[in-house]
Amino acid sequence: MKRLLNTLYVTIPNANLSRDGETVVVKVEGETRLQVPIHTLGSIVCFGPSHCSPALMGLCVDRNVTIAFLSVYGRFVARVQGPVSGNVLLRREQYRRADDPKFSAMIARSIVLAKIANSRTVLLRASRDQSDSGNTDALKRAAAEMAIHITNLEEPAPLGKHPGQRG
Q1: What is the rounded average pLDDT for all residues in the chain?
Q2: Environment class of residue 72 by beta-carbon count within 10 Å: exposed (0-12), middle (13-18) or buried (19+)?
Q3: Which superfamily does 6-80 belong to?
Q4: What is the pTM of this model?
Q5: Contact of 51 with 16, CB cutoff 8 Å
Q6: How far, in Å, CA of 134 to CA of 40, rounded?
Q7: Model confidence pLDDT, tens digit, residues 31-58
């Protein structure tokens, strides 16, 4: 079964969340308002004063479902999350590479190149969609300029200050 990682948002004040087998039960004033299978959830977000049973928290930890508690106004209060695994060797290599100017320049160039290419695609699509209006020439000119920038970015350049940059 494909897991969609849906988020359950609980916005009713004083909601009571509990576990019933493999489901999350949301009750308000003793009345069941919602019952959702845990396998369909990726996270639960509770706004305002809500109560969450320890049994539900344990189920969420076991099923890798994060519970976040926020204030009525959306300010973060707390989070319940199971163990997170990490790869220390991978992180060390990432930090080493981030300190390498040539590698950093290559990554930065790839990101900028992709952003310009995507923006150019949006402009070309807009010019096709608005073929009946007079704005297509401006869109096509902007897309052509972006094509020039894409060509220029294919050549490696050092990461650092350019001549016109202050600081």
Answers
A1: 87
A2: exposed
A3: CRISPR-associated endonuclease Cas1, N-terminal domain (3.100.10.20)
A4: 0.54
A5: yes
A6: 48
A7: 999 999 999 999 999 999 999 999 999 9
